[in-house]
Amino acid sequence: MTTEPQPNQSPPEPTPTPRPTRRLTAPRLPRSAPPAERPASRAEIDELIGALGDPAHPRHAEAVDALVAIGAAAVPALCNVVGPDQPWLAVYRATEALAQIGDGRATGPLIAALKHQNANVRWGAVRALTQVGDVRALLALREVARSDQGRTSWGESVAGAAQSALDLLSRRSIWAQSLELIKLAVVSVIFLLSVALAFGVIGALRNELDQFGRYVPGQTELPTLVLPTPRPTATPRRPTPAANQTPAPAVAQPITGTALQVANVRPLPGTNNQPIGRINAGDEIIFLARTANDQWYLIRLGERRSPDSFIANPDGSGAGWVNRALVSPPSADVPVQEPLPLTAPTATP
């Protein structure tokens, strides 16, 4: 299916080649400790920045991962690349690196990138702002969700991604305020208990000092020292291995992967149907099948997932189809399965 360019969207660019990226944790408060950063020279950072938008560069494929490993030191150079007038491929891959670093200094340049002519870049900027989690982006994301009609070259709606980001950031803001109120209440209670305990200890100490050195016949008792009696300890017996143990049958391991960004889950492969769920960056997914052209995977959610991730398939299977560009490659070969057409439910007589 072809997509006609919208007024604020440039002609669709070729889909960026999917590549494995490091696993992202789902956004949450408070943030977990960032990974260790490796030192890098200014010349190396400039070389990696130049390789982002140059497919012929020898370090093009590894540029994003290398910049993410460098971490905060690479943020200023990445922010200089992210702009509405920069080449689309360099800006798109820069937003991918900024999303994984999660540095708040990138909020302003990422907001500016929301005005880029290319829909892939605007979608990448929305994803990066979701990972950074700065509430300053709420107004810009509302404008994108209301007026952006563009779609990425693999069929994802920019406005839909912006709306998902708004929902997530709003929930995070409410949780943050709630956590601050709870922390304030706990600290206040602990302070009051500490003050009351301190007054009690001071009063008891004052009474003890007043009675120190006084001996009242019949009232003053000398303390007695009682030594504990040691108890014999039993020597634990080592368990003997059972004879002729039957090995347990091997259990087939599921084929797993990771969601690379916020994405819709659909009942059939393709974008001409309504989503039945959503996955978030870092969610564990289990691959069930793939299409014959390797463009779509049938998945279900694993145990490690974001609280707002879900797949509500009408058939009750808890599975759905997602584009291969939005998830990491599977850990093993996935069987081919042709999707069955959706059937409308029949009325009960």
From TrEMBL:
The keyword Membrane applies. Residues 1-41, 223-249, 329-349 are annotated as: Disordered. The chain crosses the membrane at residues 181-205. It comes from the Bacteria. Residues 8-19 have a biased composition (Pro residues). Keywords: Membrane, Transmembrane, Transmembrane helix. Residues 339-349 have a biased composition (Low complexity). The keyword Membrane applies. InterPro entries: ARM-like (IPR011989), ARM-type_fold (IPR016024), PBS_lyase_HEAT (IPR004155). It holds the Pfam family HEAT_2. This is Ligand-binding protein SH3. It comes from Chloroflexus islandicus. The lineage of its organism: Bacteria, Bacillati, Chloroflexota, Chloroflexia, Chloroflexales.
